Structures are given as C-alpha cells and as structure tokens.
C-alpha cells in the first residue's frame, strides 16, 4: 500500500505558498489536483509543471457528494499501484471533503496518508475582513447549508459557493432567518493579488458578481439579541428575562399550577385555527402554545428541578425509542403496525399500575377522561361486541333520566344525566369519534349561527325582546342554509 501524499495549495497565489510545498510540487512525477482552477496552478503551469485534474468528474454528477467520493476512490485505487501526490486548494483539513473521505478510508485500513499544510483560506479571510475569530465564528458548507445550522450571533463564513446556483441556494437558506436586505460580503481570492471584497444586500447575493471556487460568503453577526427573533435562543432569553429579577411581575408570580388554564385556552384556540384552516392563525396560536412550554421549562429551571434541555432530551429519546422502524432495523407493514409497536414499547417503559385506568384521567376535560376510561376498559374486553349494545344502553339511560327529570331530586337528575353523557361518549368511541372534538365543533357551529341571529337582530330593532322565538328560529335556519352553501 503506497502513500497518498496530500498537499495544500494555500488560499492565494504562488508568493504565499510555503517553500517546502513549492519544492514538493516541483519534484512531483505524477501530480493530481482536485481542480485546476487555482492561481497557484496557473503560475506553476508557466514553470512547466503538469498535473491531472478531476474537473471532469464534476460534469458526471448532479451533486457534490458523489464527486468527492469518486475522487477519493480513484486516489485510493491509484495508490495500490504507485505513490500518489494530491493537491487541494487551501489547507487539506479545512473544508476539503475529498480529504475527509481519505481520512475515513485510512481509519478503515484502505489507504495510507501523509498530509502537508498549505495556508488555510481562513487566515486570509480573517485578514481581509478584519475580524477576530475568538469573538465566535462558524465555517459552513455552502453545498449543504440549512438555516438551522446558522448562529446569527456569530461571524458566519460560508465556503464551497462555486457558482450562481449554489449562491442562490445559500441566499434562500439565509433569508429564512435574516432580513432580505441584510448586508453580506462576497470574498473572492482572499490573500492573493486579485483579492476582491464586495458587500451587497442579501437578496442580491446570487446576481451581484461572479463567484467561483475561491469565493466565500461572509455574514456579519446580528449584534442585538432582540433582532435575532427567529432563533430559539432569543425566545428562551426573552422568557428568562420576563421571569428574572427585573422582569415582569406577572410572569415572575406564575407557577405550573397557575398556568394550567392558559395552556388549555391556547390549545383550544389552536384547534379552532386548525378547524378554520387559517395558516396565519395556526402559526400565531402555535407560538402561544410554545410560550406555555417555555414558561413551564423556565419555571422548572428557576426551581432547580429541570430545564429546557431535559424536556428536549426526554421527548427526543422517546421519539427514537418508539420509532425503531425509522431509527432502528425493525420492519413494519403499515400505520396500524406502527401504532401497535408504539403501544407495546410504551407498555414496557411504563411501570405496572394498580388499575388499567391509572393515568387516563384528564383534569382538563371530563369528556376526554370518560373516553379514555372506556377505551382502556374495551381493550381489556369490557365492552359490547358492536355499537348496538351501546345504543341499547343509551335508550335505557335516556328513560331513567326522563323519569328523574320529571320527579327526582337535583342530585338524582345530575347522576342520571351523567350516565346519559357517559353512554354518548361510548357511542362516539364505537364510531371512532372524539367526543371532545365533537363538542368543540358543536360550540363553534353554535357561535357562528348565533352570530348570524345577532346580526339580523342588529339590522332590525337591535333588541332580542322585540322578536318572537319563531322569528329568531327563522334566522337560525337562515344561518344553517348559509353554512350548507359554504360547505
């Protein structure tokens, strides 16, 4: 196994190339380069030095990853026959994916490497932009950039922006966080005689200047935290400030218990927005629900019991454990099998309880509690074989309630009415319906139709007392007819 000798060509021109690297290139009998598009190679060509480039490999693939893998595989195959010298732009271990593939192959025993430096383009970039990396910086790959990768509080350097297409992809990713007119700097050939810096608004990034393999995009940090409102850290800091010594008196007073009604309210408002298919309202209501989550997490941190990271770790590990067909090697045949696996894994995780109904109570909703109780009992076999049994039970409870309604005490009437509601919930279960959602929809329907009645009264005398029940009922039927037309 012969050695693959990897050499860095540096970030600039021949004058910046270390003398030792220059001598090695001059003495090379067989030199391979990732790309011939580099100022050092242009100058070496004038001195009669030749090489074989892998530029043609780029034409064979639609993405960069297979290009880098093929180059590495080719070099490994060549090294089985002879020693290989391979030259790359910059430093071999900075933003050079082909070398990372070679390093991985070396760990697997498939090749042997010797890596020699060349000036990293980072040194030249820091000098050109006059920035100190100790302030915090990110080096990101422009061919695989996601907005989640970007920390707006740091100096952001985006390498591997080769052409207008990759510049456009980088622009779109950045605009998910930054304003469209945020200033960015296009740095080309940093440290060389042809060094060029051009600052443009973000939206012009892909049409302002020609970019090439010596181009790096610089995004300066957003200094004010309240201007970084699309980052999780900012929202967390806002909540911590509100709960802090100089924050809001109301927020400081809240506890897990005091916030319960607000969480319920926000959840119901989100469900309403979903029912209305209002995307803007859904986004807003999701934010209100998220506020409750962050408040509870901050209270946990303030009390010293848990913090947001514990919440994230808990739900992330749960999703991984309960999706072995995604994160493991389990095979499933469909959604029903996924649910069965979920319940099986959940049962293994939960400690044994004294009753099947333990943990099924929902303090926020008696309807949901009733539904959960009956569902658990049914899973154990305590149910009718079909909906006919539930309907018969409903008729029985209906008659008992009518009897008590006619002559019974309030306590007995309440008891029998509860039994009646309980059977209705069971009927809903047989038909796969959520009684809670049904009640939400019924309330929403009533509100809309009664709103129409109010509108008609307002258009008339403005007083409900001036109308008979028959007239009001006519307005109600108008509302029903309008709703059917909309449907």
Describe what this molecule looks like in 3D:
With 487 residues, this protein is α/β, with parallel strands linked by helices. The protein has five domains: 3-119, Tetrapyrrole methylase, N-terminal domain (Cobalt-precorrin-4 Transmethylase, domain 1); 123-227, Tetrapyrrole methylase, C-terminal domain (Methyltransferase, Cobalt-precorrin-4 Transmethylase, Domain 2, 2-Layer Sandwich); 232-306, MazG-like (Helix Hairpins); 351-433, MazG-like (Helix Hairpins), CATH 1.10.287; 437-486, no CATH class. It contains 19 helices and ten strands. The strands form two sheets. It has a five-stranded parallel beta sheet, with helices on one face. Helix 8 crosses helix 11, helix 10 (260-275) packs antiparallel against helix 11 (279-302) and helix 15 crosses helix 17 (410-430). The chain is elongated and about 110 Å long. One of its GO terms (biological process) is methylation. Keywords: Methyltransferase, Transferase. Residues 254-327 form the NTP pyrophosphohydrolase MazG-like domain.
Spell out the blueprint of helices and strands:
Layout: E1 3-8, H1 19-27, E2 31-33, H2 39-46, E3 52-53, H3 55-60, H4 64-79, E4 84-88, H5 97-107, E5 112-116, H6 121-129, E6 137-141, E7 155-159, H7 164-174, E8 183-188, E9 196-201, E10 215-219, H8 232-243, H9 249-253, H10 260-275, H11 279-302, H12 308-321, H13 324-327, H14 335-349, H15 366-379, H16 387-407, H17 410-430, H18 435-459, H19 469-486
Parallel strand pairs: 1-4, 1-5, 2-3, 2-4, 6-7
Antiparallel strand pairs: 7-10, 8-9, 8-10
Domain Tetrapyrrole methylase: 4-205
GO molecular function: methyltransferase activity; nucleoside triphosphate diphosphatase activity
InterPro entries: 4pyrrol_Mease, 4pyrrol_Methylase_sf, 4pyrrole_Mease_sub1, MazG-like_dom, NTP-PPase_MazG-like_C, NTP-PPase_MazG-like_N, NTP_PyrPHydrolase_MazG, Tetrapyrrole_Mease/MazG_pred
